[in-house]
Amino acid sequence: GENVEQHPSTLSVQEGDSAVIKCTYSDSASNYFPWYKQELGKRPQLIIDIRSNVGEKKDQRIAVTLNKTAKHFSLHITETQPEDSAVYFCAASYDKVIFGPGTSLSVIP
Amino acid sequence: DAGITQSPRHKVTETGTPVTLRCHQTENHRYMYWYRQDPGHGLRLIHYSYGVKDTDKGEVSDGYSVSRSKTEDFLLTLESATSSQTSVYFCAISESTRYGYTFGSGTRLTVV
Question: How sure is the predictor about B97, in pLDDT bands with cuts at 50, 70 and 90?
Answer without folding.
Answer: confident
